[in-house]
Write a structure and sequence with these properties.
By secondary structure, this protein is of the alpha/beta class. It has 23 helices and 15 strands.
Length: 648
Amino acid sequence: MKKYHISIVFLIVSIFNINASNNQELKKYLVPIPKSVTVLETSFKPNSGRIIAYGIATNLGVRFSANNLQKILKEKGMYFSIAGNVAVGETPEIELIIDSKKQTNSQGYSLVINENKITLTANNEAGLYYGVLTLGQIAQYAYDYGTFPQVTVNDYPDFKRRGVTIDISRTKVPTMASLYQYIDMFASWKINEIQLYTEHTFQYQNHKKVWQDASALSSNDILDLDKYCSDRFIDLVPNQNGFGHMERWLEHKEYWHLAENETISDPTHHILGIRRTISAVDKSSVDFVDNLYSELLSNFSSENVNIGGDEPYELGTGKSKKEVSEKGKGQVYLDLLLKLNSIIVKNGKRAQFWGDIILEHPELIKNLPKNITCMIWGYKWDHPFNKEAAKFKEAKIPFYVCPGTSSWRSIVGRTENAIKNQINAAENGIKYGAVGYLNTDWGDDGHPQPLITGYAPYVYGAAVSWSLEDNRDLDINWVLNKYIYKDPAEKTAQVIFDMGNTNQILDNSDINNYSFYSLLYYINKPLKENRQTAKLKNKDLNEAIIVLNKIIKRVETCKATANDAEIVYREIINASKLAIHSCNLGIAKLKTKEGSIEKVDADTKYKLLVEIDAIIAEYKEVWMLRNQIGGLTDSLEQLLKVRTAYLN
């Protein structure tokens, strides 16, 4: 038999014992860490060149996994061919098998590497893919250490549905190249559901005015993304709100008739000063949503649809006021939800909806249809997932737990809050029988934070939703440095992780703090008029500046080699400088008796102006490296308000 060619690393392999510390070192390479990993004391040396993938001729999933394994091994200097069956007299070196009788856990797999061969047995196509991912990580370990360990792995997920959201409506629409990069990253962590929150960023054929300046995704874009996700056993779930958060539609006069309030009596009112919610009782509004879903859903292969339904702030203040007074706000909400659910059923799919409003009226949970799934969201570290999940378990209504990356409105992230939020959701999701775990990321108020601020909670959420008890102590930064940033110095991820905790300096009593952004967002308000800025102190602002400057300096010690390494470093520096600017602004306002920007002296304002101009210029350049131009103007709106305040 031919010996296949291997890299120089494998040519110098020597057999060595793998003790307990080596076992732990191997586990560090595995993300998510499997439920059971046993390392033996001998090694395996590949000496053949065939992957036997049974059913490859007829099963596209098997074919994709086999090709993926071939590619992974090739990157490590091992050149395997692929076949669909064993030749006469052959003992194959790698076998890929689907056998639901041997591996009974859905999406589960077992992996055995002994002295002669590698055998991967999976419950289904998805399980085979996940086993290949784990084998690829073991191959990376072998590449680094010079030997393949003999090992047995038995693994399956805690949550059958493990998802993430990316907000592509609040100004940032990633380029297709960026979306493919994100999908690959999530797939490598065994994520199997992705939702792109789209509000107005799909090219609806009869509504061009709404999306024409937003770099909206086309039907072809969605079809391409859907196929790319499907190949990687990811369900690309359409996410289009059908009730609240419709301001991008209702800002146009042609759509005012759909709104709960067609006229605005007080434009300064924090809730009623904007049209963002469609009427819950107007048939034309329901018909409008029906038409949107009819066009959108045909582009997705998913059986699921997230119809939103969260935060309909104006409900009961306009067209629905009479019905709300007669039937109650909760019942009017439920009536609309049932209508939207019927639309989804008509399209042959299942609806998901955000649970915040129905949880305000828990007596109505029992009236939900059994074919709808509630998405319980909560983003503080101590969110009461336990109390909320118990209500849906009792009513036998399927539900997800939905924590978040905590990055929005933060500029630099909120790492500690996010990590604790992930654990809380996983623990209570498992305890109360959640059918899924959806890790959310949002772009509120201009989406100023780079997505890298969410990578740590993203990977941690993926890990604990796969196997909570095995991943509580996941070395998040090591994993990100190894596989995402590819930093041999092992520093990049820690820099971003630490950057995401600088918020706590300004208010260490609240790990969900977002004072950096509040200083910018409420530029024209005295400090004491906002909860996040009312108690700011000079010493804390100065300490934050020192820490953030150290973050920028630490970037010089990082050695990332990923294709987007330079983008990552520019994002770290720009975000840190924007947070530093917020602190400088806070210090300037504190020097005035009123804590007001109007009272800041002219010289200080000029210094702040020069500083923000440089930040804005870099902000625009960095934006275009990952995102399409649509939405950039809107994202800059708040920063330009800050700039204007310095000119007055």
